[in-house]
Specification:
561 residues; mainly beta; Jelly Rolls; Coagulation Factor XIII, Chain A, domain 1; 13-stranded mixed sheet; globular; binds calcium ion
Length: 561
Amino acid sequence: MRARWLTRLGIAPIVVAALVGLTPLLGVAHAAVGVPGSSVNEAPDFPTRAWSDPWDMNNADDMLRNFGPMYNVSGAAFGGGVLSFSLTGKGYISPLWTGFPGSLQMGRDGTLASNTIDADTYRYVSIRMYASAPLGGAGIFWSNCDRMTLSCEGGMPVSLSGLGDGHWHTYTFPLANNPGFGLPVAWSGPMHGLRIALNPASGTTPTVQIDWIRLYQPVPNNSLSGVTSGLYYTGNGATCEQLSGSGNTDLSALPPGTYQFWTTSNCSGPSGDATVVSRPTPVVTAPSLAGAGDYATRYLRNPWDFSGPGDVARTGNVCGSTYSSPSGAFSGYNCSVNGYINDPQVFLHVGSGPYAIPSSVYHRITVIFTYNGPFDLHNACHGGTIGRLMWLDTQHPGLIMQTKDWITYSDRAVFTFDLAAPTSQLNEEGAGNKYPFVVPRGYYVTTLRWDPNEDKCARWFHLHDIKLNADNAPVFGVFNVTWRDARAAPADKVSIFVRNTSVVGSAWTQIASGLANSATGASYAWHTAGFAHGKYRVLVRVFRNGTLYFGDFSATGPVSV
Ligand SMILES: [Ca+2]
Ligand SMILES: [Ca+2]
Ligand SMILES: [Ca+2]
């Protein structure tokens, strides 16, 4: 069953009316700016809390650069802690991308509960940016459904005063739906998408650079005093830079760093220093959504690492098949062996009889996959950059099941999905057989097939690795909870809590406290002998500066005790 791409794309670019840029305020002599303290804690920031990964543009996870999440943008690249791109028309970028409607929702797709913004908490956006020329207008838009579409959308124009004057600028914006756009959704409740729209001035294709974006919760008593006109600051990469927008005196807008402030554009007579102290950013690395204990390794004694023959049972509509070793990839390109060039198929080696896949245990799949050529979802030559997983099982003999479209962004290579998802989230809507991947004990998945793309022309693909894992579980009564924190501080103390989700109403139990934090990786051996059977959620809490903590950080998958 081929996907009906063009009706699915959900690309409805919203352009913003041209706005007249404001003239930057000119500073006059003023008393020094007062800071709320020499040390203040970083205000809560959505990506930092949701993923322990701020939108600092240090890593590719910070923004998808493919068509859909971006529009009328070319040459988008990360480098030196900055996202750079050219604006080729009225375009946008998506700090939070909803995901393509009708596709498997994974990664940082905004429709997933763990990726949803609480708009009542995070009420301001701040952004540090540069443009090679003044823009014609800009706006911020949001969606509270599974796509950016008018009925689910809200938005507001934003003024990027001074942008294009040869200097970097930092802006703050309180989020509120602007009636002028005629969009229905207020900035309130759960939000699944956030878009920044940028219009070039007529006849220009400016280069835009973004150093960081924050979506933050303003904190009381966090404001500068004595700011009566313009505001300028130095620190964290900025040198006597204008900081403008409503709410610009609230230090909640700024990422961690040490800053000084002025009201004069020549930055004479500074404030005292104010250090915004970073929040911890722990990431629980085990347990995780990916799980552990791979089926092929355990049952076939030969992981699907594609380092040699045996991992692929057979192919359909694939030419040029080759294994690379030792890097390990199965490569090929689609061709019309069985009559459908846009239906290449790679059948994985699966055992027979009791060596087939007991999917009640093995359902956490991670596919590492790349391809040549650009990302393009059109149902056409050089399009069809979606994968799909197909399977057969002994509970439904002869019925071929298939996942929804598996969007293979060229910006990503590692794709993890828990195939235990309900059929409404798992199965292709346009296909007939909607059954779970997980079959009861005693039944098996006997065929597992990865369809690399739906391109109507030859396109090379590279299947690097597939793991089909079980839930994380203790080994001989011990489970090693592991985490790392890129912002670990020497005096941090870490506590770990678990809760048995298999027992309704069960409480959190602290299993460890006073542990050291680590940027490179830390581990705690949880002895599970005294704990009832069940699936346990795990979270870590980091205490910084004594009793202060910054919220809890959940593992993305359970421990099955
Ligand atoms: Ca980041
Ligand atoms: Ca940066
Ligand atoms: Ca192998």
